[in-house]
């Protein structure tokens, strides 16, 4: 799942789940939306990415390349070392800024919801 939010200067994509060949059908529409927003900064939050292959990396690279052509920048935050490795193997690390200060919230704690125990009527 990819959620897009905007501010006057930034487009933020929050990605959850796999970013791979199986998800590629949604990439063109999302890329068109992001490019159409014409924000100078694209932030890609990868805290909840569970797996990324070269197809997912190509999608991110296309976003970064489009932004760079407009004079913008693309920031990866919360990227796992394995995800960065895929981008590096693709030869595209220079298209991205890496946010070294971002710390993903503990996903185990974030996924826990407080639900009251249902009561049974006699």
UniProtKB/TrEMBL annotation:
STAS domain location: 1-114
Species classification: Bacteria, Bacillati, Actinomycetota, Actinomycetes, Micrococcales
Organism: Cellulomonas edaphi
Name the record gives this protein: STAS domain-containing protein
InterPro entries in the cross-refs: STAS_dom, STAS_dom_sf
């Amino acid at each position: 799942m990819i959620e897009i939010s905007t501010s006057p200067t930034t487009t933020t994509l929050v990605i959850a789940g796999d970013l791979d060949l199986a998800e590629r059908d949604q990439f063109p529409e999302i890329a068109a939306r992001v490019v159409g927003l014409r924000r100078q900064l694209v932030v890609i939050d990868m805290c909840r990415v569970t797996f990324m292959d070269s197809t997912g990396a190509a999608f991110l690279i296309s976003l970064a390349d489009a932004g760079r052509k407009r004079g913008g920048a693309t920031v990866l935050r919360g990227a796992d070392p394995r995800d960065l490795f895929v981008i590096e193997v693709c030869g595209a690390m220079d298209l991205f800024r890496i946010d070294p200060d971002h710390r993903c919230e503990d996903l185990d704690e974030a996924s826990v919801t407080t639900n009251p125990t249902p009561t049974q009527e006699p």
